[in-house]
Every structure is written in C-alpha cells, then in structure tokens.
Specification:
heterodimer, A: alpha+beta, OB fold (Dihydrolipoamide Acetyltransferase, E2P), six-stranded antiparallel beta sheet, three-stranded antiparallel beta sheet, 11 strands, 13% helix, B: alpha+beta, Alpha-Beta Plaits, three-stranded mixed beta sheet, 16 helices, 15 strands
Chain lengths: 149, 457
C-alpha cells in the first residue's frame, strides 16, 4: 500500500490517499494537515456532504455509490478554531464514509491512518484505477512511508 | 406386400431384411452380422442408417477400455432423428404386418447378447447402488434431413421475444422424441402428406453416410465424508483462478479429489467442506469436515482405508481422516453446520503498545461479547457491504514478550478473525486494537476446531 500525499489548495489542507487491495482508495488526513499539527485545535464535528451519506455503494461488488469529483466536498470539519472543507482529491465513486466520525469526531486526529479515515472510494470503472494512481503520483511529492512495521 | 417390395428394392441391408420378416432369433441376426456384408461401401442401409452394423465396434471398444467395470447395467438407446423418421415410415408401410422388429428393440437384443457374453448382468432393480447405465446415442449427419424441416413446429407461445434473444438462440432442432410424437400412429396417406412425399419409399433412399453410435457410461453419484487438515500456509482450499490464470500451487480440494477420482475411475468428484480458511491459515485440530460426491464411478469395490492412506502419503500439505461412506443429505448438513458451529482459533499477534499485565488480565476476564463487523475491506469485492453481529465466546491472551502475544479465540461461525485483531479501520468493533488502544497486527492464524461444543451443554 503506497501512501501518497496530495497537496490540495493550501487553505484546504493535505490529504493522504492509500490504495488498498489494488482497487480501493482510502482518504484520510495527511500528517502535513493543519489539524494534525502538534498544537492543532480539537475537532468538534464532522459533517458529511448532504447527498453523500445516502449514496454509499451496496451489494456484492460494490455497485452504485455517488459519483464524487474534484469539486465534491466530502466533509466539513469544524474545530475549536477554523473550519475545513475536505474536497475529494480524485474522480471516483463513493464506497463508504467513516460512520465513526459522527459520534467521535476526534478520531480524525487521534488515529488518522486507521480508524480516523474519512472515506473509501473506488474508481468509476475498474480500468481507471491505475490511471488515477499514476496521475496522483505525477502530481504530488511522495512522502516517506510513515512508521511501518 | 409393401415389405417384399421394400426388400426387393434394395433400400435396406441384410440385417434389416431379417427384421422386416419379423425374425425373433438373435442367433440368426448374429449370423448375418458375422458374414461379410453385401454392402456397397459408398452407401448404407436406408432403414437403419448402418447402425445395425455400426454398433459392435464402439461397444467392444468401450468394454475393453474399462476392464474393471463393476455392477449391473441398464441400456438406454437414442436413435438419431433421421433414424426415427425412417423407422416411422417403415412402420407405416408395414401396416397390418405388425411382425416387423423395431430398430431400437433389435439393437437392445444385440447389445444385451454382447454384454451377457462378457459377463455383465442386466439390472432388474434400477435403483440399486451399483447399477450403471450405458447411454448409446446415434449420430447422423448425412443427407436426408431436409424432410425434417416440414416437421419443425414453430415456437409456440412466446410473444415477441426481444431482439437480443432472437439473435442469440439458434433455431430449435427437432429432437427424436418430438419426431416420434409427430409421426407415430399416422397412416400411410397421412404420413405422405405430412412429409410431402409422393411415395413413402422415397423417404427410405440409401444415404451416403452411415450413422455412428456414441457410448457413455453413467452411474449415480455416491457420497463420502471425512475430515481434512491443512498443514501448509501456501495452499488455497479451492483452485484459485483469476481471469483464467492459475494462482497458487494446487489446492486442498484437488489434493483430495484427484486421488479419489483415480481410485474410483470417476468422471468427476465434487468437493464440499464445512466452511473454509484463507490460503495462509492452517487447519489443525480434529480437522474440517468435508463431503465428496463421486460421479460416474467405474470401480466400486475400493477400500476407503486405502484411498485415505494414498492421499496422506501423496504429500505433507493435506491429511485426511475418518473417510467413510455417507448419504446425500450429509452434504446439505454441511452448510447448516458451517453456520451454527463455533470455531476456535489460535493467532500470533504484534502490538504497537507494550503489553501490560493489566491488559492481559482484563482481556482474559471478559465474558462472551458481541462484535459488530462491517464487511471487511479485503473481501468487499465479493461480499455485500453489510454489518454483521457476531459473538466472541472466549478470549485467552498469552504474552510472548512486550510486543508479541498469542491469542486464543472461540467465536461464532462467520466471524472474520483477522479483522477482529487489527480492527479493519475501525469497522470491526470492538477489536483487539480497541481493547489494547494501539495498532495490533495478526502474524499467523491457525484454526484449531470447527465444531466447538457449547460450554454450557
């Protein structure tokens, strides 16, 4: 699993995208995100995009799922200080939003690589996965893998 | 009278001539067959399409290929459609002279004689276990099929099949049974009009090729059950094929079914186990129950103990035990048991945080609890996204050192143990990760039992 750091609009902060099992993109906060800085303000709430929550994938082979693109706001993260919009970094389809963040928003900061993920996405067509991955690698500066076994 | 004309017109072979006269002595037919034919090499009989001469070779070849064929036989003969057609024309021509021996009957007699002379006994009770069936199918691809077009009934009932279906389905070919239904019992004139023939004997012209007989041996499947151990961490349970390519080296299924098929001379052995384990997980303890369906076996008197030793000797990846015969319903029980039984596992795990005595004590004192598991990310490609509640009945943690520990789990069927350990991004709650409040990874997993008894029973 490669971790790539995609540098988005600086005002929005940085996201980390992991490719799992060759077809699933797991989106979470990258270490360079302001909310993960040492003295960052605590996250108070995570609100997912209005239409998204109803539109996760379903059934065997993860059919359906809302189309999300570079303009889609996956979530609005409110904190004690500033609020942040998490914009989708790739053209994809939604598989799952992290339901745990509704009740425990601070998971985002406590376990960003693990339970505090934001969303799982899949390519709109299976053959697009590699193309998306390549585009991300071309556009971003790869980060060293963080603290692995 | 018509029959005499038929014989004289030389449409039929010497064997058919006999049957037209209503001869019931098999010996006479064998005599005629024994003498070299008066057949023209370029044409075959217009009545039997050469089948009365062509049946011997395939049957003898089949019997010599299967020297150890056991059991009592049943014979099932299917004539080619054109054969049925000509037979019906013949019967119509014969009319009151009902002494004509039918082609199917004659073939049966001749085959029975041959099989009897080889020591085979015809089965009186078709449902006995050792009965096998010889299916004889006649194939004919020569001339004379045009008449059949008039018999084809248009497809009835379906209103406006969709364009796609019309393109895909080939035009229905006439089956032998449909032909029999359409033609039997008709009088000469009715038959003439139905087939569009001026004179019925036109339909019995000698064809250019003869029909051939295809033979196949079938037998009711019987069932064997046993238990298997999987001792390798690189062996999948079933053959692993991705996009036509073989991944992994063999499988538990093949390691068991291939020798069994060889011993019994079976065409196919179906394998069904009570649940399954991942490729990198060992199956230990008493073993996982499985059931085999052995189809179309040639040999029956095989000692199961011998088969068992052969499978175990063949390699050190799979071991089977308790091999014995069983009923068909045992296969159905397997699925039911897979969902009801509790399973016991042993895992070796790594913990990011240092393990404290308190962690271990707290964990070991937990009573049974429920776990909510969302479909693990690693199987999302083949299972529906859902949340499944499963019970963990018992946990026992044994520390190896500060960061490594052994974990025994007794859990409800259907629970994903790997995800219970590492938490699967928090989608399995609770998990060892949530208990220890730090990253936990599973390094090795063994299944130690698949039918754990309820402790309270």
């Amino acid at each position: 699993m490669e971790e790539i750091c995609v540098s988005d609009d600086i005002r929005m902060g940085a996201l980390a995208i992991d490719l799992w099992h060759g077809w699933l993109f797991v989106i979470s906060l990258a270490p360079s995100h302001p909310l993960l800085a040492p003295a960052a303000p605590k996250v108070t709430q995570v609100t997912f995009g209005a239409d998204l929550a109803e539109n996760e994938a379903y059934g065997k082979r993860c059919r359906g799922g809302a189309n999300v693109g570079l303009r889609t706001v996956l979530a609005e993260v409110s904190s004690e200080a500033e609020n942040y919009n998490i914009c989708c970094p790739i053209e994809a389809r939604l598989v799952e939003l992290n339901a745990l963040l509704q009740e425990d928003p601070q998971l985002l900061q406590r376990a960003p690589e693990d339970e505090g993920f934001l969303a799982i996405l899949q390519a709109r067509r299976p053959q697009d996965t590699q193309r998306i991955l390549q585009k991300l690698l071309d556009e971003s500066s790869p980060m060293p893998p963080a603290g692995e076994l | 009278m018509a029959l005499q004309a038929l014989v004289a017109s030389q449409h039929c072979c010497a064997v058919c001539a006999l049957r037209l006269r209503g001869c019931q002595e098999v010996a006479s037919y064998q005599q005629v067959l024994g003498s070299s034919g008066d057949e023209n090499a370029n044409e075959s009989c217009g009545l039997c399409l050469g089948l009365l001469r062509a049946w011997q070779e395939p049957l003898r070849a089949l019997l010599s290929e299967e020297p150890k064929l056991e059991g009592e036989y049943l014979l099932s003969i299917d004539l080619p459609v054109v054969g049925v057609l000509r037979e019906q024309i013949l019967l119509a021509l014969a009319e009151e002279e009902a002494t004509v021996v039918e082609l199917k009957d004659l073939l049966q007699w001749l085959a029975q004689e041959e099989l009897g002379s080889r020591g085979f006994v015809q089965a009186k009770e078709p449902l006995k276990a050792d009965v096998f069936t010889i299916h004889a199918t006649g194939d004919y691809s020569g001339s004379g099929t045009e008449i059949l077009q008039s018999l084809q009934t248009p497809r009835s009932g379906t209103s406006r099949p969709s364009k796609k279906r019309r393109r895909e389905e080939p035009p229905a070919t006439l089956t032998a049974s449909a032909a029999t239904k359409a033609l039997s019992g008709l009088s000469k004139d009715e038959l003439k009009t139905k087939l569009g023939l001026g004179d019925l004997s036109e339909g019995l012209q000698r064809p250019s090729t003869s029909a051939t007989l295809r033979l196949q041996i079938c037998r009711e499947g019987f069932f064997i059950r046993g238990r298997y151990l999987k001792l390798s961490r690189r062996l999948p349970q079933s053959p692993w094929v991705i996009e036509g390519e073989r991944k992994g080296d063999g499988s538990v299924e093949e390691d068991i079914t291939t020798p069994v098929a060889k011993y019994f001379g079976a065409s196919e052995v179906r394998f069904h186990a009570e649940g399954r384990e991942d490729i990198d997980v060992r199956m230990l303890g008493p073993g996982r129950p499985f059931v085999l369906e052995v189809k179309n076996a040639r040999h029956l008197s095989i000692k199961l103990a011998e088969v068992q030793s052969a499978v175990n000797a063949a390699g050190d990846r799979v071991e089977i035990s308790e091999l014995r015969e069983c009923q068909a319903k045992d296969m159905a029980c397997l699925q039911r048991d897979a969902e009801n039984h509790r399973k016991r596992y042993l895992a070796v795990c790594w913990s990011e945080k240092c393990l404290s005595r308190k962690d271990v004590e707290q964990l070991n004192q937990r009573g049974p609890f429920e776990v909510q598991q969302k479909t693990p990310v690693r199987v999302l490609h083949r299972r529906a996204l859902a949340t499944r509640p499963r019970t963990v009945y018992a946990l026992k943690m044994e520390v190896i050192n500060q960061h490594y520990f052994k974990l025994q789990v007794c859990a409800q069927a259907g629970m994903y143990i790997k995800e219970f350990v590492h938490g699967d991004l928090g989608r399995t709650k609770p998990s060892m990760r949530s208990f220890l409040q730090g990253q936990v990874e599973i390094l090795q997993l063994d299944v130690e039992g698949v039918e754990e008894e309820d402790a309270e029973k």
